[in-house]
Amino acid sequence: MGYGRVGGSGMYEQLLKTIGSLGAPKVLVAGDFMLDVYVYGDAVRISPEAPVPVLKVTETEYRCGGAASVAADLAALGAAPVCVGLVGQDAEGQRLKGMLADLRVDVSTLHEAPDRPTVTKQRVVGLAQHRHKQQLMRIDREVADPAPIELGEEMLRQYRERLDGVDIVCLQDYNKGVLTDLLCRHMIVMAVEAGKKVLVDPTPGRDYTKYSGATLITPNRHEASVVYGLEIRTVSDAARAARNLLKNLSLEAVVVTLDREGAYLATRELSQLVPIKPRTVYDVTGAGDIVLATLAVSLAAESDYLTAVHLANIAGGIEVEKFGAATVSRAEMEREIARLYSTRNDKVRPLEALLEELAWRRDRQQSIVFTNGCFDVLHRGHIEYLEFCRSQGDVVVVGLNSDRSVRALKGPNRPINSEQDRAAVLSGLESVDFITVFDDPSVLDLVRKVRPDVLVKGGDYGKEGVVGWDFVESYGGKVAVAPLVKDKSSTDTIDRIRALQAKPV
What we know:
The chain is an alpha/beta fold. The chain folds into two domains: 340 residues, 3-Layer(aba) Sandwich (UDP-N-acetylmuramoyl-L-alanine:D-glutamate ligase); 159 residues, HUPs (Rossmann fold). Helix content is 38%, strand content 25%. The chain has 17 helices and 18 strands. The strands form two sheets. Strands 1, 2, 3, 4, 5, 6, 7, 8, 9, 10, 11, 12 and 13 form a 13-stranded mixed sheet that branches. A five-stranded parallel sheet has the order 16-15-14-17-18, with helices on both faces. α4 runs parallel beside α5 and α8 packs antiparallel against α9. The longest helix has 15 residues.
């Protein structure tokens, strides 16, 4: 049993190469197509009639759920999804088909059932303190009974017709009555006979025999625990469960997703944990969908299983930082690969690249902290100052004065260290996320472009002495003044060195 490593230039190059070779595979998606409805509002007070929040509705949003979410994820990754399944002959079904069609998903074989409603999950979401989204309730409308035999036969006929024209098959099973045991077995056999890989996101249950003969299944920790009959608490537990499923179901691969620990991959040749770096989990809704979609496009491009799971981990990590079931693009994955696998020197960004990165971070509800300075001859005061910056938000950006601007501010004998050297030293600090070099003596223009949530300066300044304070507060940002470390400054350090040099030996 091996334990994979996150990092390394070889993996960096391999992942980028795979992303670049994904192409536009045709992927057949069969399973439970659902409509997700989000009702947003402000939870402004508690009802006098009962101890429940009163929601003042401000917005209603519709998203693809279940197998529809997989199709949307595939489209965002550049694939061409083809749908086989059921929706109701109702307004919700029409809305879902329209949403998928707008994403250029083929819904021509998404059957409208007159006697079954479209599976709809309505989530009521309140804003805590007018800022943070918090799910208050979920309302499900569904019929989960097995689909009538005639509907199953019709779906199987449509599936057979579309099979030759696709590169790979995804089965998304939410146990809503579409992927019955018989239908699932027939779909897998047909695909295997046609030489197509079949990837399955299984439903929780104790019997997975209906997935026998598939290429790969992706149970999460809970699902694998149920079918294995033992709670999976450790990586060793996951390994045993994965190998058991691999053997008993005659699969090529099993991927057990393990939340913050990553995913456990078992194939006929290897058994290994594929870890991920820790990150903020905002909402796990849709994480399984994006994992399935990423594996599908990767394997359709003839990626090896290990690389495909690495990419699925990355996509899943991005998705859980978003609210609700959300798509992930190739560009987002490329940025995340660079963040996870590249060297510390990638912290130094030209302004345009920095602003693009910060926009991406804001989309993930991350707060931006900005400070600036010369940081010449780094000392204890600098370290504690930057650690204070770290305590103020999620992403710390340092505006670093160029050599020319330092000379303009401090005279012709400064800086002692070049801007390249100063940037390299700052890059080695965990408290600093990004550095951008600026040339103007005043930092105001840079502050206006970065638009930080928190602007930090040292304690030798009053708030009104901080350049850009009024601009930052104008849009609701915060100005924070860091405490000074007594008798610690670059000038004092340089003066002491020069005094020592002047003493006779």
